[in-house]
Amino acid sequence: MFLSNSSNDVNILLTIAIILIGALIIIVGIISSIVSIILAISYVKYNRTKNSADITGADAARLLLDKNGLAGIKVKVGGSFIFGNSYSHYFKKIRLTRLTKNKTSITSLAMGAEKAALAILDKEEDKDVKRRIKLVPFVTFGPLAFIPLIIIGAVLDFLVFNSGGIILLIVSIFGILLFLGSIILAFVTLKSEKKAQERTYQLLRENNLATEEEIASMVQLFKLYNVQYINDLIISLLELIRFVLQILASATINNKASNN
User: Fold this and answer.
1) C-alpha span between 235 and 186 (Å, rounded)
2) How would you classify the pairing of strands 93-96 and 86-88?
3) How many CB atoms are closer than 10 A to CB 159?
4) How many degrees, rounded to 5, is the angle at CA 126 between CA 120 and CA 129?
5) CA dist., res. 141 & res. 238, Å (int)
6) d(CA 46, CA 119)
7) CA atoms lying within 13 Å on the CB side of residue 99
8) In angstroms, rounded to a whole number, what is the distance separating the alpha carbons of residues 145 and 176?
9) Which helix (H) or strand (E) holds 69?
10) Cα-Cα-Cα-Cα dihedral of 172, 176, 179, 180, to 10°?
11) Taking 50 as the threshold, does the pLDDT of residue 214 lie above it?
12) What CA–CA distance (Å, rounded) separates 156 from 151?
């Protein structure tokens, strides 16, 4: 009787926790949506504003790379919906979306220069950028491996082992650790991005490519990107916590049923 009451108390606490996490996800999701709208408005605004240097994102990236001894780094149209504008250490390439590559806007200048700044920091062997490069495979593919792991565990559990959830639990825990690791590593990525942004402002000033007013606009734009990135990470972390709580609740129910 005592064990039964204890199990019920645990289930109640887990249920309350799951509800609270769900509420937090909704709140952060609303905030994230608001930030996304503001970001979209700011992006369009600055992408319609011509920069004072009359230079495209691709030309800005090329100029900054060449001035810093990085003529071997290519600037290509290769950004996609998933990866956007990016710098690849392994392929020695900056990928820019067509809009960034060809526009002479403040947004285009900011994006091209920021990716060049990442390449320059890489050349200088900045510790945060180096750490990011080493962790890129985990940051990129960690979350993608989470759901397949759970599915494989469920199939093995149901069709092969008939283990009452043990295999699923083991695979779930492994997937959780992988997902949690990718979230932690994503914060490393954010740190290197913020450092590249600061370097961008420095490079633009040194090369007279932007006015202080334009740099102030870029600061606001990058801040919005950073806030959005953090919001997405928080939502992912909350979803992970909710999933863990659901596993614990399911395990408690199964344990109670087996004892009965």
Assistant:
1) 13
2) antiparallel
3) 8
4) 85
5) 19
6) 24
7) 13
8) 10
9) none
10) 180
11) yes
12) 9
> Which structure tokens are listed for 138?
């985990």
Q: Whole-prediction pTM value?
A: 0.75
What is the C-alpha separation between 173 and 142, in angstroms, rounded?
A: 14
Map residue 82 onto helix, strand or coil.
coil
Look at the alpha carbons of 113, 114, 118, 124 in this order and tell me if their dihedral is positive or negative: positive
- The DSSP bridge partners found for residue 96 are 77
- Distance (Å, rounded) from C-alpha 237 to C-alpha 40? 24
- Do 29 and 235 meet the contact criterion of CB atoms below 8 Å apart? yes
Residues 102-161 pLDDT 10s: 889 999 999 999 999 999 999 999 999 998 888 766 555 544 444 555 555 555 555 544
| Phi, psi of 92, rounded to the nearest 5 degrees | 50, 55
- Give CA–CA dist 102/145, Å, rounded: 36
